[in-house]
């Protein structure tokens, strides 16, 4: 609310101010009401399509429900998570395959998101430069992001095939390797193959967000830096990077959430192999292939908790950083 | 006839098994699509359509039997009537029995007369015949007659002989300029097919059947460890590294392209290898799988597929009639002659026309009748987990992350845990 300059005496002015303020709270109250009114349908929809299934998953994780007969589930407490029986530990938390899949997921997320951020920024800087045919390149860069993952993963699976894959063909052609490499089959390479496909796919997404931030940067900083003769690399780290950090934060959190629940790219490229199994692949296997809805729900619940914790930690760290770095 | 192509993508996405299609047809059947399966299935259905005047939709399912089972379980657990007739694997009757119709109720008590007794028993759960035998399967060894002759080798009878022969021929062929030649291809992907392959290695070395008929976990023994170690030694030597991700069709692709000396596969690959566009036409021989060492014996993993009717179908009589037609002697004979699918009817193994088309149905008759079953009977509902534990352990040995002895010990622990919980 702006206060206008008036030449009225003090008393009248303050009276007018209080009236205006009370009117302001009234307006504000109406606005809050209207806001809730508009939000309610969305909240109800969310409760139905997200809240209810989530709650049901929590509930099922404490039962021994089976997919072949959901009706006859018994409540078994924490047995799906951890139970001590005949001197041995049972349950997910005692399952080495689960921990392997947690580790795989974390490794995949950290490595792929880091690579995506680095390459995404590089691509965005290139696209931000003035050159002929820039619009066409910008559109073309989006193609990997536009193709459904299940399709692009299958394309890569064929390209990475050890016998007829084009990747091996090219590498052997230029003499980098002598024998074809089984990219998606060997325990050594398969995780890297998955990471590479994911990076290829999501660079455009990061680049797009960063590019949007780059377009809004004030030109005068750069002109000043140029006049002062500061090295471009230093300008990037001192000026550009701090200014695009908020956009990068958004990109990272989106990518991190996606990466932690990754399923399709891993399943298509390497199916249920334990060397690349993610938490989602593990949960699906328990739920669908082993019919164990209780156990699978417990895995899904843990996955949910891990993602929620990662999100909270990230947002908290981001807030702290922003407060330290002043207003952004 | 309308076709809905059901890709893996849809299989993954249709969590409720909702397969969208026009509900115009009277029945929906799901057929496999490995090799010439789908074509044959469609021809059989067309014949039935002409005979009865009804219309049938064909849905093709994922090639990997592991994925196919997941899809069926989703559809059936939703009590959906989307698919009336299903092609089910020989190890599934126990898993799916609750959802399947007793065919004897509809087709009469002698519905399965003339079919192999072992398969009928396998498909009978709690005195209910839940599936009709359609074709049986046993692992066989394909070899290149021309290459063995050229390099002066006999057909190997033990795994050790196979390893040496494959290595020598592969090297000789590569030196002669054939860069892509491989010695041996099989199914090494972490899925049901590897369970069968690994069971064949273990059983042929005298290492038992993973879980014995009485439910005893027998995998932790020296012969089993030795068998897995031998298989692991093939990777990167006579087998390409990529074999760790091969299913039946990838292995056939390499062999049929003329790039492998030996292949382990099911009989269906025979007629495809002999087809007009095959690079190895008239160069292929088929024999029983090798034995493990001097005192081992050959072991062929039992496979095969059956036709079952979903309990949730709206037209049980019609669906059962289609099943009876497709599994009849006449139709099985056609499938044997055209595409080398093993009949489940004993009489057809003495049929001249069948033996002309597929000579090894005669020479390997013993192999087909004595094939080694996967431990689905003793483990019941837990079979999916048992198989998964076994193929994962085998895959770890093949990819070199564990040695055989360690793997079978860990696997025993895992199976005992499963046993305590599930069977």
Structure explained in plain terms:
The complex is a heterodimer of chains A (328) and B (423). In chain A, 71% of the residues lie in helices and 2% in strands. Chain A has helices spanning 10-60, 96-128, 134-141, 143-146, 149-159, 166-173, 187-215, 219-228, 232-260, 264-270, 279-289, 293-324, and strands spanning 83-85, 88-90. In chain A, strands 1-2 form a two-stranded antiparallel sheet. The longest helix of chain A is centred in the first third of the chain and has 51 residues, at 10-60. Chain A is flat. Chain B is of the alpha/beta class and 423 residues long. Chain B has helices spanning 8-13, 37-52, 65-77, 93-96, 103-107, 117-122, 145-150, 159-175, 192-204, 222-234, 248-256, 268-273, 316-326, 329-339, 352-357, 360-363, 365-369, 376-379, 383-398, 404-422, and strands at 3-5, 27-31, 56-60, 85-89, 124-125, 128-129, 132-138, 140-144, 182-185, 260-265, 284-287, 302-309. Chain B has a six-stranded mixed beta sheet with strand order 1-3-2-4-12-7. In chain B, strand 5 (124-125) and strand 6 form a beta hairpin. The chains are: A mainly alpha (328), B alpha/beta (423). At the A-B interface, helix 10 and helix 11 of A face helix 1, helix 3, helix 11, helix 19 and helix 20 of B.
What does the main sheet of chain A amount to? 2 strands, antiparallel
Write the H/E string of chain A, N to C.
Answer: HEEHHHHHHHHHHH
Question: If you average the pLDDT of chain B, what whole number results?
Answer: 90
- Overall geometry of chain B comes to globular
Task: State Rg of chain B.
Answer: 21 Å
Most extensive interface, chain pair and sizes: A-B, 37 and 43 residues
Question: Radius of gyration of chain A, rounded?
Answer: 27 Å
Specify the overall morphology of chain A.
flat
Concise account of the structure shown:
The complex is a heterodimer of chains A (328) and B (423). With 328 residues, chain A is mainly α.
